[in-house]
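Design request, tokens follow.
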């Protein structure tokens, strides 16, 4: 997972939000809203989110098709499972709020995250009609917030040679990293296979080139190979950038980067 920059609110969304929140408020006064009460007006943002996220899922960083994927509500709109003994009402008033909308693949959204939205033990629940975060401390990492998901989730190698796998783990024991990996199942088998293929087919050739240049001791060739790797691995539409970042960091740790004057910024 990497940071998402949505850009400005799409034209027309604010008018939709005002009208829809008013409509929902009347429903909520009578009974908890159901999924069908929300309609699909928030779909007007689908294209903008898809582009802003480099055509990838905001959680697993896999490539997604614009037509068959979901506008994801970070704070769930209908019901929210916040933890044992917590209220389960959804964040209905945020269903059309730009800052609450993301673009996710069906696997991450429908199969894994669903309505899960656990809060830290001492966190309060965001009062109705207030803007987040307020007094609320979510455990799930919001890729569009100021915090960087890479600071919470790290990819580490397991095993060697062709059998080597790369798995996401909590960076420096981050509790939120651990919960986020668990909720979204970021270590699910089909993703782990994709991680392995990405490392061997996309990152691997760059690692080899950089290694060769370092072996030959030619600073200019090293710098050129490094620049070419960053350009390919971190271009906006490239998948699994958080993984590529950790693979480069693993093969070329800070001491080596310093020696050769190589910068590795978080994507
Ligand atoms: Zn996904």
């Amino acid at each position: 997972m990497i940071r998402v920059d949505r850009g400005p609110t799409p034209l027309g969304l604010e008018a939709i939000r005002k009208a829809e929140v008013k409509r929902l408020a009347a429903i909520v006064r009578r009974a908890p809203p159901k999924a069908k009460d929300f309609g699909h007006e928030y779909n007007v943002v689908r294209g903008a989110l898809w582009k802003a996220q480099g055509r990838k899922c905001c959680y697993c960083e896999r490539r997604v098709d614009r037509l068959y994927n979901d506008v994801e509500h970070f704070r769930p709109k209908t019901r929210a499972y916040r933890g044992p003994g917590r209220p389960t009402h959804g964040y209905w008033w945020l269903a059309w709020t730009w800052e609450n909308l993301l673009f996710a693949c069906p696997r991450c959204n429908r199969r894994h995250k669903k309505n899960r939205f656990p809060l830290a033990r001492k966190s309060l629940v965001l009062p109705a009609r207030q803007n987040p975060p307020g007094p609320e401390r979510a455990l799930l990492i919001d890729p569009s917030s100021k915090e960087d998901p890479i600071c919470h989730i790290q990819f580490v190698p397991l095993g060697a040679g062709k059998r080597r796998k790369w798995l996401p783990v909590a960076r420096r024991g981050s509790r939120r990293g651990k919960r986020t990996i668990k909720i979204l199942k970021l270590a699910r088998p089909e993703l782990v296979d994709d991680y392995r293929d990405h490392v061997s087919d996309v990152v691997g050739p760059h690692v080899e080139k950089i290694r060769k240049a370092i072996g030959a001791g030619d600073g200019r060739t090293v710098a050129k190979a490094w620049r070419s790797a960053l350009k390919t691995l971190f271009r906006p539409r490239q998948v699994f950038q958080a993984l590529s970042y950790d693979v480069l960091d693993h093969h070329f740790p800070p001491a080596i980067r310093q020696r050769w004057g190589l910068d590795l910024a978080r994507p």
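Comment from the thread starter after seeing the answer: thanks! Residues 158 and 165 are 5 Å apart (CA to CA).
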